[in-house]
Amino acid sequence: MNLKELNPESSPQAAFGARLRSAREARGWTQEELAERTDYSSQHVSAAETGRKPPTLRFSRGLDVAFGFEGTTESFERAWGELRNGVLLEGFPEFVGYESRAVEIRLYEIGIVPGLLQTPEYARVLVDAAVQRGSITPELAEERISFLTERQTALIRPRPPMVIVVMDESCIHRQVGGPAIMGAQLDRLVQFAEAPNSMVQIAPYAIGERRPFNYPLTVLTLQDRSVVAYAESQTQGHFDRHAPSVLPQLTAYHQLQAVSASQAESVAMINEVRKGIP
Question: Which long-range contacts (C-beta less than 8 Å, at least 24 apart) are formed by 121-125?
Answer without folding.
Answer: 121/177, 121/181, 121/184, 121/185, 122/176, 122/177, 122/181, 122/182, 122/184, 122/185, 123/148, 124/177, 125/176, 125/177, 125/181
